Amino acid sequence: MGDVSTGRTTSGDGATTPELVQRATEQISGLLREEMALARMEVAEKGKRAGFGAGLFGGGGALAFYAGGVLVAAAVVALSYVIPAALAALVVGVVLAIIAGLLALSGRKQVGRAMPLTPKSTAGSLRADVDTVRGAAKDRGRR
Q: Cα–Cα distance between 3 and 86 in angstroms, integer?
């Protein structure tokens, strides 16, 4: 496996140790670039989901605000023909608060799905790659 006169060690395919190290370095570098690209994609996807959830949450708040302003008066007036005006205002306020709460919970759930923003699957894949390279390096050293 080696040429004693030159002191160079070669692998089974004729490559020298420095060439093998260079190949491994290039492959690891390429693998890390690919993993980083995957991490960026995963974070971008989670960011979109968080933005969508925040939009739902904000939309629920805005809807509750405007609905409270416009419909409260109309509903209270309409109900005041059937029940006393104070009771009508209370009923309408409770209904609007329930709707606003449901929208806020829906938005919170969407934001929760996107958290944390760390790219879990890519990080796991990167750990597996590092473990594989370490294992191969250890096995190579035993031979």
A: 100
pTM: 0.40
Model pLDDT, residue 4: 47
CB count in 10 Å sphere of residue 87: 13
> DSSP 3-state helix, strand, coil percentages of the chain (rounded to 5)?
80, 5, 15
pLDDT, tens only, 65-93:
887 788 778 878 888 899 998 888 888 88
- What is the amino acid identity at position 89? A
Residue 131 lies in a domain: no
Give which of 105, 101, 102, 78 is closest to 89, Cα–Cα: 78
Q: Is residue 4 part of a domain?
A: no
Whether 54 is covered by a domain: the verdict is yes
The tally of domains found in the chain comes to 1
101 and 64 in contact (C-beta within 8 Å)? Answer: no
3-state class of 2 per DSSP? strand
Distance CA 68, CA 27 (A): 61
**Domain assignment present for 3:** no
